[in-house]
Write a structure and sequence with these properties.
This protein is of the alpha+beta class. 18% of the residues lie in helices and 34% in strands. β10 (230-243) and β11 (246-254) form a beta hairpin.
Length: 456
């Protein structure tokens, strides 16, 4: 009696093996992808035979071609989008079409190092072929993604918005070692601390003026994502620094003309003609005055103030003005000089490089980045050499006396005064009803605080 199979009739062990081998050779695609099926002859047969054969490959091939996978790319220096896509295995024609479509909502030339791109790809049925590009998502920033997807006729692009929630936070702390350590322990984001230093840079020498027992408080904006995570900080709304028992409190305010600045409780702007410290987080390493030059070996006038800082630390324009020199200058190395008015000029030396666009004749604004800390010229280490020139003569930037900024008047002052009370109330509510450093200076107004030098 003969046993019948789905595709092959078994006549004997040798014939079965020969036929199985033939089927295997003729269906190499299926042999690597389709499930193996087996069946044996009845136990009473003289020679048990197992036949191996494979299903048709159409089902397996269809399943394979429906599989997609993702690749995450990070834009690096000098990368182009086309090269990134093709290097990731995408078909060149798909890549070109997707980039063309993306250009409608985002220009590829605006890609920056660090941008993330997520590709969805489908492998080609040809082992040597390029993958089909199903979609490309650019994470432009925390608020927006750009998505390009394959459709029936080419690609379509869209933007996906991620709305952020604006919240207001408050923190206060006593300084024991440094402002940054105190801020970190109070949960203040590093960017807020950097802005705090810049706001007070007109009046405070952060290397000499801060002592153990001093304190600060800050009311600031923060932006939260849909998961409730902090993604970036915003403006400082209110700030206070108490140094040696004396409080300096400032409020952010926008005038009717649209000018935004920081003002003391009387409505006087903190802004002065020049910043005393045109760099954040630096250490004062050498003062103005006579000293023994570390390279030349003899005593001479040190015409500026040196601030030691890591290479690449941003350097700011100390005031509004016009660049009248930008380039190499002997022992100064990379050097920028800015004329602020008919009286004052400032100079910045030993920079590792210049900020984009900084050249002779360029107008700059106070706080604008003009270059980066380095050690070019006659220099023994990374630092900024900062000079202030008044009427053609070098002066000590640490001792210069500059007029205070403009004072609010009329309607601006009235609006500011009302805002001041609201801001103080908001701050007090966020710190639990007790204010460590009260703007009034009145202990009774500060809850249970007994002294501006001690915590509540």
């Amino acid at each position: 009696m003969k046993k019948h199979f789905t595709f092959i009739a078994v006549l004997g062990a040798g014939a079965a093996l020969s036929l199985a081998s033939f089927v295997s050779l003729s269906t190499t695609q299926a042999a690597s992808e389709a499930p193996l099926l087996t069946e044996s002859t009845p136990s009473g047969a003289p020679t048990p035979v197992q036949l191996a054969y494979y299903m048709e490959d159409s089902t397996a091939e269809s399943a394979q071609l429906s599989i997609t996978y993702e690749r995450e790319l990070t834009v690096g220096d000098g990368d182009t989008l086309m090269a990134m896509l093709t290097d990731a295995g995408a078909d060149r024609r798909d890549a070109h079409a997707a980039i063309t479509e993306m250009s409608k909502v985002f220009k590829p030339r605006y890609l920056k190092p660090g941008h993330k791109i997520i590709l969805t790809l489908r492998p080609s049925p040809d082992p040597e072929g390029a993958a089909e590009l199903i979609s490309m998502k650019l994470i432009e920033n925390v608020e927006r993604d750009v998505l390009v997807s394959k459709a029936d006729e080419g690609y379509v692009s869209e933007t996906i918005e991620h709305p952020l929630t604006l919240e207001v936070a408050a923190a206060e702390s006593i300084i024991e070692n440094s402002l940054f350590l105190a801020g970190e322990s109070a949960g203040v984001p590093p960017g807020v601390l950097a802005n705090l230093i810049q706001v007070y840079s007109f009046d405070v020498d952060f290397q000499r003026d801060i002592r153990t027992g001093d304190g600060f408080s800050v009311l600031y904006e923060q932006y939260m994502d849909e998961a409730g995570e902090l993604v970036r900080s915003g403006n400082i709304l209110r700030a206070s620094m108490t140094l040696s028992g004396k409080e300096k409190i400032l409020y952010r305010f926008e005038t009717a003309k649209g000018t935004i600045d920081y003002f003391d409780p009387d409505g006087k702007s903190v802004r002065r003609t020049l910043m005393r410290t045109p760099i954040n987080g630096a250490r004062l390493s050498s003062n103005y005055g006579n000293r023994k030059h570390p390279i030349l070996g003899y005593t001479k006038l040190h015409t500026g103030t040196d601030f030691a800082a890591p290479r690449g630390t941003p350097i700011y324009a100390a005031g509004n003005g016009t660049v009248n020199y930008a380039g190499k200058k002997g022992g100064y190395g990379n050097y920028v000089r800015i004329r602020h008015n008919g009286t004052y000029q400032t100079a910045y030396a030993h920079m590792s490089g210049f900020a984009r666009g900084i050249r002779k004749g360029k107008r700059v604004t106070q706080g604008q980045v003009i270059g980066y800390v380095g050690t070019t010229g006659r220099s023994t280490g990374n630092h900024l050499h900062y000079e202030v020139i008044r009427n053609g003569k070098f002066i000590n930037s640490r001792r210069m006396h500059l007029p205070s900024g403009k004072a609010l008047k009329g309607d601006d002052l009235a609006v500011f005064s009302a805002m001041l009370e609201e801001t103080d109330a908001q701050y007090a509510s966020l710190v639990g009803g007790t204010v460590l450093f009260a703007s009034t200076g009145d202990a009774a107004a500060a809850g249970n605080c007994q002294s501006a030098e001690a915590p509540c």
